[in-house]
Design brief:
mainly alpha, Ferritin, 4 helices, 78% helix
């Protein structure tokens, strides 16, 4: 269980980093339809972060505190590629966490994040194609 909660902490930290990356992408892009797509992803990332924090609190009695990593992307297209790769990696990680969850009661946040993140990866792919 300790290893599983350690991985949950990494996921919480990663979710907040994903949120900050999306926030940075919105800041550097001036196309409103692209910004709207990324804002939808940002909203999902924030909800996932909050759900994983609640889960951590439910399991340990505490919220996980950490120093956030701020995104230092160089350009919009590169940031989209980074975001897409992270979403694909997250999908795989959440599937693992879902399958190794200590009980079915804690699996819902992973299922939601897993299905949302594969959709995000597809959307980032669309934004990459549009940025060409």
């Amino acid at each position: 269980m300790e290893e599983w909660t350690g991985q949950l902490k990494e996921i919480i930290h990663g979710k907040w980093s994903d949120y900050l990356l999306s926030e940075r992408l919105v800041e550097i892009r001036d196309e409103s339809w692209e910004q709207e797509c990324i804002r939808q992803i940002m909203n999902d990332e924030k909800h996932h972060y909050e759900a994983f924090q609640r889960l951590h609190h439910q399991i340990t009695g505490d919220y996980f505190r950490f120093e956030p990593d701020f995104s230092r992307i160089q350009d919009y297209r590169g940031g989209l590629h980074e975001a897409q790769q992270k979403e694909i990696e997250n999908y795989r990680w959440y599937r693992h966490m879902l399958l190794t969850a200590p009980s079915s009661e804690v699996s819902t946040p992973f299922y939601i994040a897993m299905t949302d993140d594969i959709g995000h990866a597809i959307l980032f792919g669309t934004l990459i194609a549009a940025a060409n």
